[in-house]
Amino acid sequence: MPEPTSTAAAAVTLASAAASIPVLTVLGVPLGLRADLLIAGFAGGLVAIVLLNSTPSTADTWREMVRLGLRRIMVAVCSALTAGYITPLAQLLANVPPALVLGCAFAVGCGAQQVLTFVIRRLSGQAAPPPNPPAQGGATP
């Protein structure tokens, strides 16, 4: 007959494992990324691509379309990773309630590309790109 304490200990272990937040692990190395924040950041990156046009198209050739597709995939993945790492930090700094964490991850995913581009340009010493010139042949108000 098994000891009654062993089944109780097993039940407590299973209950605590089910209540913990899953963390992404690659090759046995825990990355500290929560899957729910990654999904919310990925959705935010998709919204930035579709609605905010953060990755505009350049040409209509098949080669450019393939490059655009790969660039958009990388934008969405980078937005998800940025949201996965920055959202917990923002939650601690801004004292965000736990109910709003996924919304914050979505917002971080939406703005990740613009913020990262600004930071990279600022750190590298490059000036901001000039604004788009007005269309040719049209009257300006």
Would you give an account of this structure?
The chain is mainly alpha-helical. It has helices at residues 4-19, 35-50, 62-94, 101-124; strands at residues 23-26, 29-34. A two-stranded antiparallel sheet has the order 1-2. A hairpin with a 2-residue loop joins strand 1 and strand 2 (29-34). It is globular, with a radius of gyration of 22 Å.
| Strand ordering within the main sheet | 1-2
- Number of beta strands: 2
**What is the averaged pLDDT score?**
77
Task: Give the helix/strand class.
Answer: mainly alpha
End-to-end CA span: 90 Å
Global shape:
globular
Order of helices and strands: HEEHHH
Give the amount of beta strand, in percent.
5-15%
Oligomeric state of shown chains: single chain
Uncertain regions spanning at least 5 consecutive residues: 14-18
In which range does the helix fraction lie?
Answer: 55-70%
Please tally the helical runs, counting DSSP H or I stretches of 4 or more residues. 4
Question: Major beta sheet, specifics?
Answer: 2 strands, antiparallel
Query: Roughly how many Å is the radius of gyration?
Result: 22 Å
Task: Write the SSE topology.
Blueprint: H1 4-19, E1 23-26, E2 29-34, H2 35-50, H3 62-94, H4 101-124
Antiparallel strand pairs: 1-2
Helix pairs in contact: 2-3, 2-4, 3-4
Could you provide a short overview of the structure?
By secondary structure, the chain is mostly helical.
Entry keywords:
mainly alpha; 4 helices; globular
